[in-house]
Amino acid sequence: MSETVHSDPPRRLLGVLFLGTLLAALDIAVVGPALPALREAFGLTERAVAWTFTAFVLANLAGLPVMAALADRVGRRRVYLTDVALFAVGTLVVALAPSFGVLLVGRVIQGFGASGIFPVATAVIGDAYPPERRGRAVGMLGAVFGIAFLIGPAVGGVLLAVASWRWLFALSLPLALVVWVLSARTLPESRAPEPRPFDAAGIVTLTALLAALVVGLSGLDASSFTEALAESVVWGPLVLAAALVPVLVRVERRAEAPLLRPGLVSRRPVQAACALAVGAGIVEATFVLLSSYAVSAFGVEGSTASYLLLLLVAGVTVGAPVAGRLLDRVGARPVVTVATLLVAAGMGAVSLAPSLAIHLVGTVVLGLGLSGILGSSLAYILLAEAGADERAVAQGLSTIFLSIGQLVGAATLASLATSAATTVGGYRMGFGVIAVGAVALSALARWLLTPRAV
């Protein structure tokens, strides 16, 4: 059974949920600064080290519906505590990893544990807060990700300057312990009165499709693209991914509660939001690899490179409230159009920058552009299109397609950086392709979005 909504929930409840979300968000924020150190410590290529990010995202995506279903059935408090404990176990494995293979196992455990922290926290708020106060509470949790990306690079820079990369991950362990203890004392037990059916076939098919796509893209070779496509380790997974697309469509059409609700995805504005989410995910993947690029292109120290991300985050921070206000005044179409063109300009500047100063200007423009795509615009479009019973599914679509973009972006950029004549040349090629893609996305969004429909 589900607990009654509290008219006056304790303030410490939101504080505990805030800390739990910060725990998961900080792990994402410190991965970028850690990559150059991991590459050096384990003697990895850019292609291999990118799996530090990819393994987490893939496990996180696979775990989202699993944790949501479990929370509805066995109770949100139990699942939340299990998720925090799983995340802590994965963190310990990563921090103590004697090899890169063991580190990836830890990243998978971390990703699977983190997959339920934010969704379960949101569900707890829905149980504990009256409708008129839920928006503000969920908004505070959403703001944690911005805070994490402000804190993460600074913490990463300090720790890498005085200690090893292991401390970047080990730092989460005390916070995980605090979150677990406070959650055990504070979180009320609740579950859905009528749990939704679990789309097991859908999540298995989607995960297999994305894993095959990532493996295929990871094998691309910028110096001999045609020859690389002829290799079975490349075309085999890509063909499998393509073959699984119609399988996924068929599975979702038959599912009682599909991950990708066909009736919702068939609407043009929703298709635009999904395309924007993929684009935003690809750009987010560049965040993770920008530190490695700065080290290779401009000779920046690994500990210093993490600080450079602060300017990009500043662009997102400044642009987000402006984009939110403009959405109410002019609608999504002009905001998205300008935002995607800013992403193209920023990524183009990063791709062609002859100096660190121009590179940094490009990252600020990139952040400003991303602020008009990620978060507010996606939520605005999906909330306008989704019915009351579709809102959770619609926001789930946003998460799924963001993850797809992150996986594709990380795998492709890492492959280009590894296989091009020079690492810097490979990165610049990848950034240039993303810039062109952002221009195409702008045209697509203008076609899919009506002037004031959303």
UniProtKB/TrEMBL annotation:
Chief location: membrane
The keyword Membrane is assigned to this record: yes
GO cellular component, one term: plasma membrane
Chain ranges passing through the membrane: 12-36, 48-72, 84-105, 111-129, 141-161, 167-188, 200-220, 232-251, 272-293, 305-323, 335-358, 364-384, 396-417, 429-449
Leader sequence residues: none
Compartmental location: Membrane
This protein's UniProt keywords: Membrane, Transmembrane, Transmembrane helix
A GO term for molecular function: transmembrane transporter activity
Keyword Transmembrane annotated: yes
Domain Major facilitator superfamily (MFS) profile: 13-454
Pfam families recorded: MFS_1
Protein's membrane topology: Multi-pass membrane protein
Organism superkingdom: Bacteria
Family according to the record: Belongs to the major facilitator superfamily. TCR/Tet family.
Function: Resistance to tetracycline by an active tetracycline efflux. This is an energy-dependent process that decreases the accumulation of the antibiotic in whole cells. This protein functions as a metal-tetracycline/H(+) antiporter.
Protein name per Swiss-Prot or TrEMBL: Major facilitator superfamily (MFS) profile domain-containing protein
Organism the protein comes from: Rubrivirga marina
